[in-house]
């Protein structure tokens, strides 16, 4: 294996992760034939086939599974070395790979835009997954920092909170419960729920809420997309638990409403996390410090911006509304 090139390892990892030479070709900017050629070369060096055909799908052989772990270690070590060299240049350059739970995508890009305004030479890469997958990616060293609502417990992850993270029950404004001043938690058991997929932080939070009260949820639909949840709620399919930070604009525009259910909002915190056993390079440490110092301020600014946009939209709609013709009647008598 000593003659395998870094490029060949990258091709192999791409093919192993996608289990598709066509998708690996797209990722690596090669042709499927080019991917196949590189894999054959690695197999010649390894002395074993790395992929096999199972039905219509490709699968890793035992040799392929064994090689994948080592290939990822080699590529990660090279990335770490590259980062270390970049660190010697200070914060003028460098790369950061950030893992995001899907709910964080409504906030973190705003924060990164501010950070890159101060450090334009730093390149940022984002990996968006659910909580379970981001925790796993962090432990494998595939991301340098992670922004999430609920990091893994244990000694492997160091996490620091930087802002409160409320989750609320939402419904369409036309829902029969909209406008009710107070609702008991037991009401939720009788309503169709639109929920996130297993493994997400929001789903875990909802499951714990129901289990803690001895209730069983009535699940109407499960999805991995917050956007799909919002659209389903607005369409009247049911109610949902969702992060308050994902619905700022919809709330301001009156497209969605929150329900005043007893025990809500459910409060967590936003965390920035990293591997405890991997010292942070200067660029990573600076970004982490920026999120901790400025995260809450930026969240507040986003909320105010949504309110301003909604107010402007309402004013514009009022100007477009045709005036009624006068009936000539006087209200004065």
Task: Describe the fold and architecture.
- By secondary structure, the chain is α/β, with parallel strands linked by helices.
- Among the domains are: 88 residues, Orthogonal Bundle (Arc Repressor Mutant, subunit A), CATH 1.10.10.10; 110 residues, 3-Layer(aba) Sandwich (D-Maltodextrin-Binding Protein, domain 2).
- It contains ten helices and eleven strands.
- Strands 3, 4, 5, 6, 7, 8, 9, 10 and 11 form a nine-stranded mixed sheet that branches. Strands 1-2 form a two-stranded antiparallel sheet.
- Strand 7, helix 7 and strand 8 form a beta-alpha-beta unit.
- Helix 1 packs across helix 2 and helix 5 packs across helix 10.
- It starts with 5 loop residues before the first helix and ends in a 13-residue tail after the last helix.
Q: Secondary structure elements and their pairing?
A:
Elements: H1 6-18, H2 21-28, H3 32-46, E1 51-54, E2 57-60, H4 62-87, E3 94-101, H5 108-118, E4 122-129, H6 131-140, E5 145-148, E6 157-171, E7 192-196, H7 201-212, E8 218-223, H8 226-234, E9 239-243, H9 248-252, E10 257-258, E11 266-275, H10 282-320
Parallel strand pairs: 3-4, 3-5, 7-8, 7-9
Antiparallel strand pairs: 1-2, 5-11, 6-9, 6-10, 6-11
Helix pairs in contact: 1-2, 1-3, 1-4, 2-3, 5-10
Shape: globular
Structural class: alpha/beta
The first-level CATH class name of the domain at 166-267 and 308-315? Alpha Beta
- SS summary, helix count: 10
CATH architecture classification of the domain at 166-267 and 308-315? 3-Layer(aba) Sandwich
Give the distance, in angstroms, between the N- and C-terminal Cα atoms.
98 Å
Cα radius of gyration in angstroms? 25 Å
């Amino acid at each position: 294996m000593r003659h395998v090139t870094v490029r060949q390892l990258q091709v192999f990892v791409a093919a192993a992760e996608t289990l598709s030479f066509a998708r690996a070709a797209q990722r690596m900017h090669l042709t499927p034939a080019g991917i196949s050629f590189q894999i054959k070369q690695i197999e010649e060096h390894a002395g074993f086939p790395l992929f096999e055909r199972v039905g219509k799908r490709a699968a890793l052989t035992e040799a392929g599974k064994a090689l994948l772990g080592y290939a990822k270690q080699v590529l990660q070590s090279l990335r770490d070395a590259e980062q270390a060299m970049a660190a010697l240049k200070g914060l003028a350059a460098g790369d950061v790979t950030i893992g995001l739970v899907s709910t964080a995508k409504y906030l973190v890009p705003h924060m990164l835009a501010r950070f890159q305004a101060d450090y334009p030479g730093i390149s940022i890469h984002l990996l968006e997954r659910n909580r379970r997958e981001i925790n796993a990616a962090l432990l494998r060293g595939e991301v340098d920092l992670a922004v999430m609502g609920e990091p893994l417990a244990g000694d492997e992850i160091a996490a620091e909170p930087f802002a409160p993270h409320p989750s609320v029950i939402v419904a369409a404004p036309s829902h029969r419960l909209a406008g009710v001043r107070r609702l008991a938690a037991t009401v939720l058991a009788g309503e169709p729920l639109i929920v996130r997929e297993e493994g997400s932080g929001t789903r875990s939070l909802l499951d714990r809420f129901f289990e803690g009260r001895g209730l069983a949820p009535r699940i109407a639909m499960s999805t991995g997309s917050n956007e799909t949840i919002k659209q389903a709620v607005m369409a009247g399919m049911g109610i949902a638990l969702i992060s308050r930070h994902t619905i700022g604009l919809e709330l301001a525009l009156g497209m969605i409403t929150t329900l005043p259910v007893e025990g809500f909002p459910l409060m967590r915190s936003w965390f920035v996390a990293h591997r405890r056993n991997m010292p942070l390079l200067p660029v990573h440490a600076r970004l982490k410090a920026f999120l901790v110092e400025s995260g809450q301020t930026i969240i507040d600014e986003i909320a105010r911006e949504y309110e301003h946009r909604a107010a402007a939209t309402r004013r514009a709609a009022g100007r477009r509304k045709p005036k009624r013709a006068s009936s000539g009647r006087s209200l004065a008598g």
